[in-house]
Amino acid sequence: MDIAVALVPSLLFGALSLLLGAFPTDTRRQNTAVMVGAGAVSLGCAALLGAPWSLSATMWGAACGLMWTGGQVFVLRAFRAWGVSRTMPLTTALQLLLNATLGVSLFGEWRAPGSLALGAGALALIMLGAAGCSWQERTGPGPTAAQRRDGLLATAASAVLYGSYPSLLRAVHVPSAHAVGPMGLGLLAGAILCALILPRRASLRGPRIAPALLAGGLWAIGNVLMLRSTAAVGVASGFTLSQLGFVLATVGGLTILGEKRTGRERAVVAVGIVAAVVGLVLMGTATSMDAGMSPSRQTVPGKVPEAV
Question: What are the boundaries of each domain within the chain?
């Protein structure tokens, strides 16, 4: 049952991407509605969870909500530039790479014997898989060179903003569950910023605002369920399972959204998905190896491990 619950966030995150891709509308309207939906549902979930609101959690959680806002603005730009099926696998891979790098360098992760090599191999597979999902033949249909460049830059920016806030919360010692409500405040503040800063080409009230509100709410529910699943099945398994949403987004982008690929590109996408999923499983294994170390054998930065 716990594993089934742990898979739900990946379905919600994948559905979010397909909703936004299937019902495009004015950029300012869509971004603002996503933030309102995510912020409102986050506040509602926080009230149900009853997590404490310390000054530190409120300040850092709100900052993380603003970071997520920036990531969402860039990911929607990437969707418009080169499609959902190219954006989602690459942003997922880059987020995993960023978090793994920060985990190793700042938090002393992957110090169990063999875990660093296994983790590095997992990252290589994930990056290779993401590259395969985003690959385009020179003569194939799809975005132009300028659109690919814009999509790549927007995807990279989204990954930095999406991928940084979990490590930020960890660095300032704020439990993720405590940050859910404050993140809601940050997301609502982000909605105001989107409404004020993004180009005003159309009114905020208009068609296709409901799918964007729903997409934001799906993310907030998925975020809370991911926190629950990491507590139930472990951080390694829970986080790994939550990242499988890119498979739904990639396949859905090609089938439901009708993003064009050549036969050769579709074959490479299939291989890329398999490589990325295997890499995710190996990454979860590497993290589990750390969790399985006895406290006396764990190496903490700046501290010499005790002799056995």
Answer: 2-292
